[in-house]
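Q: My labmate handed me this sequence with no annotations at all. I'd like to see what the chain might look like in three dimensions before we decide whether it's worth expressing. Could you predict it?
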Amino acid sequence: MFEPDRSSTRSAEQTPQLRTTVAESTVLQHWNGLADAGNEASFCSAWLSMQCSRISGATGGLLMMPPPAKGQRVVSTSWPAQNPSLRELMRLAERASVERSIVISPGSDAVSAQAFGVLVALPLGPVSQPIAVAAVALASGSSAALAPETVAEQLRWGAGWLEALPWAQTSKEISSGVDRATSCLDLLAAIGEQPRLQGMAMVVANDLAARFGCDRVSVGVMRRNGSIRLRAISHSASFKNQGRLVDAIENAMEEAVDQRSSVAYPPLPSTERAVAMAHRALTDIIRVSGASLLSVVMAGSKGGPVGAIVFERHRAESFDMNVLKLAEAVAALLGPVVELQLRANRLLAGRMIDSAGGGFAAVLGPRRPALKLGVIGVIALALFLTFAKGEHRVTAKAVLEGELQRAAVAPFDGFVRSAPVRAGDTVKGGELLVALDDRDLVLDRLKWRAERDKLLQKHQEALAKHDRSNLVLLYSQIRQAEAQLGLAEEKLARARIVAPFDAHVVSGDLSQMLGSPVEKGKTLFELTPLDDYRLIIHVDERDVRYIAVEQRGSIALTGMPGDPLPMILSKITPVTVAEEGRNSFRVEGRLTGPSPHLRPGMEGVAKIDTGQSSLVWIWTRRVVEWFRLVAWKYLP
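A: Here is what I predict for the chain of 636 residues:
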């Protein structure tokens, strides 16, 4: 019995399955190409292949997107890769683009130039503004060649993919932008919790290493001399013992900063022109096959670089453009934050230099005219105060006293009988001030008067008897009695104390002490003349060197602040008085103008004219002298 060959049977059974698998793989590849909206060339190729495979008898195809126009880039895709009718399809497509309608033309063999099949070209999209032009070559005798309108209908149905391509690209870009913004915000929230630059750099390095899938991320900041100082390495608390690696990373950062652009190794399409010698040297130190590096520059608020970030992957997975864009977005976000941290960590002198630089930039820049006018006004005022002259005046406290001051004292021990005046009263010369009790004095006067009369009588009797020895004794006793009588009369006369001249009663009040005893020599009243005063000015020891006799000025009394009185200095005493923690000299002066409302004891503020001086010196001399004294005290 004949047995069929099993190998041939198995081969026959497996062949359709293999063809089906290849066809499914091709269709899947086309769908994947349509899903990749970011690669326009791949998308157009997949779309043209998909359309041509669905058209019966299609031998070639061409897609031009957008339609050809002068000065415009056109994505041209043909199917298959070796298309014998490509030139004819291009000419027909250009014709259809110009005519804005479907064009059908017989084809020809590329070798024998004989008629071969049918060519169909038509614009796709709106009639007023097509988005693409498609052309298809159909084999002779095929069903599609007999009815080319069906080919046009098929292409129009598929044009929806081409119309949706710009929207898909925009959506993908927006999605990428949202992802980048989300990553930046998350990173910003993480670094916002760090008050110091070192802690912030460490958080940034660790977060970026996890977010970008990197084996190591390094963060460096600019020094004042323009070099880079490495601040943090991801997952490393300290890197002091890795001097060679640190130098290589800093060199890579400086290479990116010097070029003011991102550097990738192996290079990416946007970084092909960047120099990457330091990055290549860093990969030699890493000693890992397939390692890739990416460096981005952190720019400050004014566009200048403030640091750099280096991303490292120690595996066969290089960085792509999406990672580069995200890294640049992160660097753009971190730049101003790092700049603020650098300014905050500077010493007081550095901050003052920054403030001065910012002030000069604002004044000399093209903006802020109000500030410029203000600065010009301040400079003009400073020049005026420097060269303008003014009267230098020494200010001091002053007290008004009487030129003469008399004291009414108790002439003997006695008792107060009457006191018609008291402090503040004005008295005339000879007016009674106080009267002491004189009853004992009257009796004493009578006693000695009677004693004198008795001795005079005895003296007459002795004289009649010519008693010479008794006359001498009586003569002495009479003189003694007369002296005691004179003393009693003198005391009796002084029991009434009167004003020696017209005066003000400065002190003294015995109206509540009637009948009270007073001791001999006790001051009962103080009197000063009515119109004769002197000023006692307490000049601070810092200003006494500017004072001289005969200098003039004015005084404003507390009771008459709106009526300054002229004065002239008459005497400077070389004696200091400690008052309120300061030493002052007692300077005497006199008023040069009369005033009917003056009273002794009135206080005020005196200003003494010492001469013309610069206004700046007048207003700043106290501060300058204080600084000189402090410098003399503390400097060696």
